[in-house]
Design brief:
317 residues; Spore Coat Polysaccharide Biosynthesis Protein SpsA, Chain A; seven-stranded mixed beta sheet; two-stranded antiparallel sheet
């Protein structure tokens, strides 16, 4: 095994075929060098679904750092002063009308409206800290495709989850890890970030709270490299949650199981032309085609960066 060192004595354990890389932490997001130069830093969209969150949205918007390039507020027909309050605190905010009903519909609406390289999603009730966004983006800038928060690894926690919900999350997580050969530590948590270029591969259809599980299922099936970062879930600052533990728990379970059934019976794929060749024995106009194949079984290696436990997903090469 090889140790990947950072300037603050943090260590990432990596497979032996990877060489040691020195990581220099800066005030901005770390962007690895490509061909000897640093590419431009990616732009970041923050998608926040809201419905009657007038007493919470101001605190959330005040905490957002300047390195978020676009804030998209997806309004689910609020009847209070949510939009007026939001626009007074952040005049640059984009308000998008939600299409459909439910949290999943709101997030999908916001994802499609985003214009930046990276999409971050979080709640508007004050239970998630916008100051954690930089950690998600850091991993996306350093080789990962999908980053999700976890309340159950070192550095994370929850001041809001009830014993009943904790038990339900543990059960659903166990089902997910068993069906997908995963090693995740949290499933039903809506603080996530991913590269926008993978939005089509996620092919999201969920309309409710189960979208958080659907995103993780689709990311695993698409072969994306996934990282978990610690996150602290705080109590909702005001109002009552729309989450119904039993009803939404069943919907999450159905999403996880249905995704596994879909994986077991993949659709038939057609061949695709990938290149043309020129050779003395082959006519210049001959095209070579190969069938698209399902990604290989993923191998996950576990490492740590400080108190951050991560799961690095790598294809078998």
């Amino acid at each position: 095994m090889t140790e990947l060192q950072t300037t603050e004595t943090e260590t990432l354990i990596a497979p032996g075929h990877l060489s040691a890389v020195t990581v220099h932490e800066t005030a901005n997001y770390l962007v690895p060098k490509v061909n000897g130069f640093h590419p431009p830093a990616p732009t970041v969209s923050l998608v926040i679904p809201v419905r009657n969150e007038a007493r919470n949205i101001a605190w959330v918007l005040e905490q957002i750092a300047d390195d978020v390039d676009e804030i998209i507020l997806v309004d689910g027909d609020s009847t209070d002063a949510t939009l007026i309050t939001a626009c007074s605190y952040r005049p640059d905010i984009r308000v998008v009308v939600q299409e459909g009903v439910g949290k999943g519909s709101a997030l999908r609406t916001g994802f499609l409206a985003s214009n930046c390289d990276i999409i971050v999603m979080m709640d508007a009730d004050g239970s998630m800290s916008p100051q954690e966004i930089r950690h998600y983006v850091h991993f996306l800038c350093n080789g990962y495709d999908f980053v999700k928060g976890s309340r159950f690894i070192g550095g994370g926690g929850s001041l809001d989850i009830t014993p009943f919900r904790r038990m339900g999350n543990r059960f659903l997580l166990g089902v997910f890890n068993a069906l997908y050969d995963g090693e995740l530590t949290d499933l039903c948590y809506g603080f996530c970030a991913f590269h926008r270029r993978y939005l089509e591969h996620l092919a999201l259809t969920a309309t409710g709270f189960e979208i958080e599980a659907e995103m993780t299922v689709r990311a695993m099936q698409a072969g994306l490299r996934i990282a978990e970062v610690p996150s602290l879930e705080m109590p909702r600052r005001a109002g009552k949650s729309n989450l119904h533990a039993i009803r939404d728990g069943w919907r999450v379970l159905d999403t996880v199981v249905a995704g596994r059934r879909r994986e077991a019976h993949p659709p038939v794929v057609q061949t695709e032309v990938i290149c043309a060749v020129t050779d003395s024995d082959v006519p210049a106009t001959t095209a070579i085609s190969v069938p698209a194949v399902k990604p290989p079984r993923l191998r996950r290696t576990i490492g740590s960066i400080g108190s951050t436990r991560i799961r690095k997903v790598m294809g078998e090469i």
